[in-house]
Amino acid sequence: MRHAPILVVLAPLLSALASPLIAYASAAAARGVTRLALGISLVCSAFALSRALAEGSWHYHLAGWEPPWGIEIVIDPLGGVMAVLVSAMGLLGAIYSEAYLSTATDERAGIFYSVFSLLVTGLLGIVVTGDLFNLYVFLEISSLSAYALLATGGSRAVVATFRYLLVGTVAASFYLIGVGYLYAVTGTLNMADMSARLEVPPDSPVILVGVSFIVIGLAIKAALFPLHGWLPDAYTFAPGPVIGFVAAVMSKVSAYALYRILYFVFRAGSAPGEPMMLLGWASALAVVAGSLMAVAQKDVQRMLAYSSIGQMGYIIMGVAIGTPLALIGALLHVVNHAVMKGCLFMAVNGVQWQAGIFRIQDFTGVAKRFPITMTAFTTAALSMIGLPPTAGFFSKYYLALAAVETGHVPFLVALLLSSLLGAVYFFRVIERAYLMERDEPAPATTRDLPSSMLIPIVALALGVVLLGVFNQTVANQLLAPGLP
User: What does 159-217 look like in DSSP terms, one character per residue?
Assistant: First the structure.
């Protein structure tokens, strides 16, 4: 297993190259290869995480070339957690897609598995790379793959994805310009090397401009309010097999990259203060605005999309506050929100795929028809609201404590208001699903979703509960070692 760090990325990449060719013989074989590759990536991620926890960060130099000349993969405890999260969500997404692709041709299924594997490759590369330029390359690989997948949801999805492509290109350019400024000052792109060479005072105009470009670029990618314009339509019209994975991890990986640069390239607390202050207030606005816009929606998937904007505010708020408690809350919410939102989107898309309903009013009595799916949906929704002992309660609790500890009263008010609004928009769906009866006769088909869809949904719902019950173990043994 001494090559486990590179296998984390290489396994899904090889799957992406092989899937279209294998699909000409059999789509089932391409599906099996994709699941196998993502399973290998998950095992290697878990092994690298366990070694990083036991022995410290694992530095892997590709072909023996050491930085700053060679490509370096770094798996520290937090990078290992993110790699496990991305590869696990990718595997569940691949399993979930089977029913959707049951009517597709072999060639089309092969192309889907290829691009999906490429998307997972890009996101895994972002969380394990030790180089700022390679992070940009992986950012582009994941973005281009996401554009291709999101655009397959129909004509409205094409328009939404084109807008996402334009905004995403601007964001990537901002990031690259910011990296260019930092390279001009330090002469290196390796994160650890750049951190060691950043002896220029943090208030240097060159560094301030560079960090500002990077922060804005990654904030757009993370859909932080008011830079979120691309997200609602892209998520609403996205095809089902894609959105459960994209909504769960893609924006969180961008937030992770932001945290990594602000706290490890610049070391703890040494990043210029202006971008951090801007992030803090933008996140507080995001928490409230995202929740208010979610309340106003009539489409369940669109409601979840706006909810994501508010939830990303939680994560960025913790990064901006910057105390150990706030960072634990932010990092725990990265994991929690990925699991919660993955479960919610997969459940809603499954109901939409089988029953053809998407408006909140159409969810009347739907719990009788989809009992397992709606139980999972309710579990994740209660966690999103922040009810104990689910996962969402504890990450919000840590963030609220950090806001009190640092005297950020407006941030605390935003957190409380967002939880109340979350209860309003989620209980509208739960009330209709469980407590209201349909006026017209129930449909003849009363089967719940196929097992290939239920397995990921139920697994994520269980994850929501387990992350809540074992939140201290996750926070103290997995996330705390990843603090600066």
Answer: HHHHHHHHHHHHHHHHHHHHHHHHHHHHS--BHHHHHHH--S-TT-HHHHHHHHHHHHH
284 CB contacts (<8 Å, ≥6 apart)? 313, 317, 410, 411, 414
Measured at the CA of 372, the angle between CA 94 and CA 88, to 5 degrees, comes to 25
pLDDT category of residue 272 using cuts at 50, 70 and 90: low
Pair 401, 330: CB distance under 8 Å: no
Residue 201, judged by CB atoms within 10 A of its CB (0-12, 13-18, 19+), counts as exposed
Sign of torsion over alpha carbons 306, 252, 479, 289: negative
pTM over 0.85: yes
- Count of alpha carbons within 13 angstroms of residue 335, beta-carbon side: 31
Output b/e per residue, 441-473; b: 16+ Cβ within 10 A.
Answer: eeeeeeebbbebbbebbbbbbebbbebbeebee
State the Cα–Cα distance between residues 138 and 119, nearest whole angstrom: 9
Amino acid at 20: P
Angle (CA) 370-373-377 rounded to 5° is: 125
Q: How far apart are CA 450 and CA 448, in angstroms?
A: 7
Gyration radius (Cα) of the chain, Å = 21
Q: pLDDT-derived band of residue 201, with 50, 70 and 90 as boundaries?
A: low
Contacts of 86 by beta carbon, 8 Å cutoff, 6+ apart: 45, 120, 123, 124, 127, 249, 253
Q: Which phi-psi region, left, alpha or beta, contains residue 91 (left: φ > 0; alpha: ψ -120 to 50)?
A: alpha
**How far, in Å, are 217, 279, 283, 440 from residue 228 at the CA level?**
12, 14, 12, 39
- Token pair 């097992």: residue: 451
Dist CA 78 CA 82 (whole Å): 6
